[in-house]
Design brief:
The complex is a heterotrimer of chains A (564), B (221) and C (318). Chain A is mainly α. Chain A has 21 helices and 3 strands. Chain A has a two-stranded antiparallel ribbon with strand order 2-3. With 318 residues, chain C is mainly alpha-helical. Helix content of chain C is 70%, strand content 1%. The N and C termini of chain C lie far apart (41 Å). Classes of the chains: A mainly alpha (564), B mainly alpha (221), C mainly alpha (318). Chains A and C meet through helix 12, helix 13, helix 14, helix 18 and strand 1 of A and strand 1, helix 3, helix 4, helix 5 and helix 9 of C. Strand 1 of chain A pairs parallel with strand 1 of chain C.
Chain lengths: 564, 221, 318
């Protein structure tokens, strides 16, 4: 496993350094294969092998789509040479409108499958948790961002000026991705799988920003496009920070207890207080709570959405507020998801012996988590410098940069105009800290300081069994009932023993992923049916094979004859 | 001042759309009937306001008809019907409330886009929006008839649909009184017909679930 | 009026909302009691309750973590900061640019996040019930709130609450359908967020119907006092929000004289009183709904908010 880790890093580096399609695709494939090797590094477990296989299939599909996209982009140039594959040559002649539209679709498929856009996300909840935790952190935190980079490079840079409708497919995919991702996360009971599914949600948020930027750029509002693109890139940075932090925390829990099933954990805040604190910061940040960083990027995205009534196109006018509603829904559900994750894993009472005997993570792990937590807080209370730093990437893509934010008084950010909206993470942080300490002081000065420990009250029925606590499944039950019924066909069946029988009653929950049920399962059936037919070709005699070759040759000649 | 006149008309029309959504939201027959009466009150108010604004006294007659029939007689009759027939007091839905409301939002959006595009450059903005509201009320009434099982709630859906028609008619200037009265009467007759029909269903099948009729359609085997 | 004047108004407002929050709750309780033909406790009873709780010792469950002890302060602080940013009697608060309406919504979300975590901390089944249901309710209430923030922002072309109030006050916004939809949605959200009937019953201790009470079941003494106070502040916040956006008359503009400020305070007090009476009337006349009816209720609020936004998006472009 050791050699693949730097290879994975090198592959990702190569993608972002590439200045021509060949190097880009080479790095992309290198990254895919190295990460595949890392995913199956624990290949003793059958589940991991299956995850690796699904991942490999999707990666190959994604690369194919990107290869076709680059082929279309290079096709306009003169001749087939390495020269025509360079990005500058592609930029120089630009594709025809039709080719550009196909390139957009292919980029959504290729980069989207790597990033985890619904419905191409199916590999992600399998592969990310199968890898070792630090690799999961890289895959979720960084590799999906490389995919976002690929999308931006192709669509914003190489495909020429966008048409008015380019934002529509992106927004149509991105909004549902955000909501579906977090709903998937709410249904999972494996810590790392929850985190992987929440990556899907965050990718959705990022692509909402990108879709908005496309829509605004194409419809003559480059300043707003710069705002939307900045919001997307800010969220890229944020997600890299807090998702890595959360995966490190999940890894620390895995090392300490040997468990990643939420139903076996609980009460780790007592054994691992520092890990718990860092994870709390990560959970609050990903739930978009002020004054942390996740909130800033969502706030910027909302500001861009609020500027959309000025767009001239009807479809976009109706679509964008609906996407805004989906985004708000996703943010609220994310808070529910991380209350669930944190509450089940770190709070409450330990649900297994392994959880009750956990020890605090080692110093390196804690340092890594603490530094990421500090970065989350810093990016949240000082968003201005981050926004300014992002303009270097925004300006070449949409041609305009946002006005400088780093030097504004009191460290505020004012994305559009002062009268319109402003946010000051630093002051919000200071105010909360001040009023919390004021309250604590007041209680200490005037209130009672006596504290007594006693058994939990729980309306007089404290249960002794820690398994009687709310579990991951029961916490999600109301949400499963509200959202899961139609979306995931979630069903609860209660099996009651007949009266007089002492057997326990059982409650079982079933759900299915619509992407599997309606897209991949039929696809798989079609492929196996086709290959069943094609299987007959493998059992012919030599004369028949020769006939096949001959037939193909004649057909080709006929086509050639008719072509002109 | 002209602005305020228009604002009030606009608000009343919009409130009817809102009440249409409330109709979709209700899950008790009693509440459903009362919300319908509320919509009728709003309708009467907005027609009366149009009468004042357009200086068209015959619209007062329309308002009075709406007030008498739809606020008083029909709700009371429906209430009595529910009581006398001992109908199950819950609204039985085919599609649950959430998706229905989502579909409703889609319909309102659709009618806005259609109306605003079709009438582009014709009248002033708010009048066009009022027409869109009227179309929304009609569509929402239809939606209610589709998604509710119970015959009583279907009647209410139909009546609310008709509210939308009157709203549109009152907004358009120069609608002759004869047309309105005939519309009002035809609706009343429709109500009586459907009402007796409900009694009949009830007598025969012991339920007012219209799906019960399905079994008696021929040719299905 | 310079910075000091602004600071003075800002701190006056912070003190005022904090000082009057228990009174508002007392008024609501009293009005409800009278409507139910009970005598009811004095309107000052919430103050006495808080003082009593402050003086009592805090009983912690044996396995309560540090988070359990810190959460009441965080919840209180986030709610207080949010309440301090809503214009009550004067617009042009000196720190109003710190946070817009979206931030205020998110601050309340932070408070709820910690409250839900605190509910799960001791590891009792009631705490879990409360947290789980609270997150289900908020997952619909929050988007509804954001949708109506969108509506207001589209009318006022700003998400800054002071600016919104100013626009509502001065320019002829007129009677807009979208605003009517937003008002209904805001009232629905406010009812849900404050845990009032029909969503939750603030005075119940019947186990299976509790939401908010279930989360704070293990709290006692000063901790409970902080959480109660935060809840009362939240009620003030929502009533002030409705007041400042939909009935902005009487708000003292930025740089007003002392007399205007006093008038603003009186107007605010009147609005709060009317709001409290209406809330009591509403709560008395309606029955609590089943938990799984709540998503329909809040879904309706979300739809109304979305409808209002859509209408504005369309009509803005005519």
């Amino acid at each position: 496993m050791l050699p693949f880790y730097p290879a994975f890093l090198a592959g990702m580096m190569l993608v972002v350094l590439a200045d021509d399609a060949f190097t880009f695709l080479f790095g992309w494939e290198f990254m895919s294969l190295a990460s595949f090797a890392l995913v199956v590094s624990h290949h003793g477990v059958a589940e991991n092998v299956r995850a690796g296989l699904v991942y490999l299939m999707m990666a190959a599909f994604g690369t194919l789509a990107l290869m076709l996209a680059f082929g279309l982009l290079a096709a306009g140039g003169e001749g087939v040479s390495l020269q025509a594959l360079s990005f500058s040559a592609m930029r120089a002649h630009g594709p025809t409108p039709l080719a550009a539209a196909v390139v957009l679709g292919l980029a959504l498929l290729g980069a989207g499958s790597k990033a985890g856009l619904v419905p191409l996300h199916v590999w992600l909840p399998l592969a990310h948790p199968a890898a070792p935790s630090h690799v999961s952190a890289l895959m979720s935190g960084v590799m999906t961002k490389v995919a976002v980079y690929g999308f931006i490079r192709i669509v914003f840079d190489l495909a020429g000026p966008p048409a008015w409708w380019w934002g529509v497919p992106v927004l149509l995919v991105a909004g549902p991705t955000a909501v579906a991702g977090v709903l998937y996360a709410l249904m999972q009971t494996d810590v790392k799988r929850v985190l992987a599914c929440s990556t899907i949600e965050n990718i959705g948020i990022i692509f909402v920003g990108l879709g908005l930027a496309l829509a605004f750029e194409a419809n003559g509002a480059p300043a707003v496009a710069a705002l939307a693109l900045t919001a997307a890139l800010f969220h890229v940075v944020n997600h890299a920070l807090f998702k890595s932090l959360l995966f490190f925390g999940a890894g620390a829990v895995l090392v300490a207890t040997g468990e990643k099933r939420m139903g076996m954990l609980g009460g780790l805040i007592h054994a691992m207080p520092q890990t718990a604190l860092a994870m709390l910061v990560g959970a609050a940040a990903i739930s978009a709570l002020p004054p942390l960083n996740g909130f800033v990027s969502e706030w910027l995205t909302f500001q861009a959405i609020l500027l959309s009534p000025d767009l001239p196109v009807w479809g976009l006018k109706m679509l964008i507020p609906a996407v805004g509603a989906l985004l708000a829904l996703a943010a609220a559900l994310a808070a529910a998801c991380f209350v669930r994750l944190y509450g089940i894993v770190f709070l409450g009472r330990p649900r297994s012996a392994a959880a009750s005997q956990a020890r605090e993570a080692d110093g390196f792990t804690r340092t890594a988590m603490a530094s990421l937590a500090v970065l989350c807080l810093a990016a949240g209370i000082l968003p201005g410098p981050v926004i300014d730093a992002l303009q270097g990437a925004v300006a070449p893509l949409v041609g305009v940069r946002m006005t400088g934010q780093g030097h504004l008084a009191w460290l505020s950010i004012i994305p559009v105009a002062e009268g319109r909206s402003s946010y000051n993470g630093f002051l919000v942080f200071v105010f909360i800290a001040l009023s919390a300490s004021l309250a604590a002081l007041a209680v200490h000065a005037f209130g009672s300081r006596a504290v007594r420990r006693a058994p939990a009250w729980d309306c007089g029925f404290p249960g002794d069994d820690p398994l009687a606590q709310y579990s991951a499944e029961s916490f999600a039950q109301p949400l499963r009932r509200v959202f899961g019924r139609s979306l995931f066909a979630a069903r609860e069946t209660v099996t009651m023993p007949p009266p007089g029988d002492m057997a326990p009653a059982r409650l079982s929950v079933s759900e299915r992923d619509p992407a599997w049920a309606f897209l991949f399962a039929p696809l798989g059936r079609a492929v196996s049916a086709l290959s069943g037919r094609a299987n007959a070709i493998a059992h012919l005699n030599i004369r028949n094979y020769l006939a096949l070759v001959f037939g193909a040759l004649v057909l080709l000649l006929v086509v050639l004859a008719l072509w002109a | 001042m002209g602005n305020l006149v228009f604002d009030i008309a606009h608000l009343l029309a919009g409130l009817q759309v809102l009440v249409s959504f409330l109709l979709l939201y209700q899950d008790r027959l009693g509440a459903l009937i009362r919300v319908f009466a509320l919509q009728a009150v709003l309708l009467a108010l907005s027609v009366a306001w149009q009468a004042y604004a357009q200086d068209a006294p015959h619209l007062y007659v329309t308002a009075a008809i709406a007030l008498i029939f739809k606020v008083l007689i029909i709700p009371v009759a429906l209430d009595r019907m529910v009581v006398r027939l001992g109908i199950h007091r819950q609204v039985e839905t085919v599609v649950s409330v959430g998706p229905t409301m989502l579909a409703g939002i889609g319909l309102v959006g659709l009618s806005l886009v259609v109306m605003l595009r079709v009438t582009a450059g014709e009248a002033d903005a708010l009048a066009r929006e009022d027409l869109a509201f009227a179309l929304s009320v009609v569509l929402l009434g239809l939606l209610m008839m589709i998604t509710r099982r119970n015959a009583v709630s279907q009647i209410i859906g139909f009546m609310s649909l008709e509210n939308g028609l009157i709203l549109a008619a009152a907004g358009a200037r120069g609608m002759p009184l004869v047309v309105e009265i005939s519309v009002a009467f035809s609706v009343l007759i429709a109500f009586i017909v459907i009402g007796s029909f409900v009694f009949r269903i009830r007598e025969r099948f012991d339920t007012v679930d219209v799906d019960a009729l399905e079994r008696f359609r021929g040719g299905r085997g | 009026m310079g910075l000091t004047g602004g600071l003075l108004i800002q701190s006056a407002q912070m003190a005022l909302v904090l000082a009057l929050a228990p009174l508002l709750t007392g008024v609501v309780r009293k009005a409800k009691a009278r409507l139910q033909r009970r005598q009811g406790a004095s309107v000052l009873q919430p103050y006495r309750d808080l003082a009593r709780l402050f003086r009592k010792e805090a009983v912690l469950a044996e396995n309560a973590s540090p988070l359990f002890r810190a959460a009441p302060y965080v919840i209180f602080a986030a709610t207080w900061v949010a309440a301090a940013l809503v214009p009550t009697f004067a617009t042009g608060l000196v720190f109003s640019w710190t946070a817009d309406l979206i931030v205020i919504t998110a601050l309340l979300a932070s408070a709820r996040f910690f409250l839900a975590l605190a509910g799960m901390d001791v590891g009792t089944s009631f705490g879990g019930i409360g947290s789980s249901r609270e997150m289900m309710i908020s997952s619909l209430a929050e988007p509804a709130m954001l949708m109506l923030v969108f509506t207001l922002a589209l009318v006022a072309r700003s998400t800054q609450l002071s600016t919104v109030a100013q626009v509502m006050l001065t320019s002829g916004v007129g009677l807009r359908v979208s605003l009517a939809l937003a008002l209904v949605a805001l009232v629905m959200v406010a009812v849900a967020e404050n845990g009032r009937i029909p969503i939750d019953n603030p005075s119940t201790h019947l186990e299976l119907t509790m939401v908010h009470e279930a989360m704070v079941l293990e709290y006692s003494g000063p901790h409970l006092a902080m959480i109660e106070l935060a809840g009362q502040l939240k009620l003030v916040l929502y009533l002030s929000l409705i007041g400042c956006v939909f009935v902005p008359w009487g708000l003292a503009p930025a740089g007003a004289s002392v007399l205007a400020l006093a008038a603003g305070v009186l107007a605010w007090a009147a609005k709060m009183a009317v709001g409290a009476l209406l809330l009591a009337l509403f709560e008395t006349s309606i029955a609590k709904m089943r938990v799984f009816r709540v998503p329909d209720f809040l879904g309706a609020a979300l739809m109304l908010g979305l409808l209002g936004t859509l209408l504005l998006f369309v009509s803005r472009s005519l």
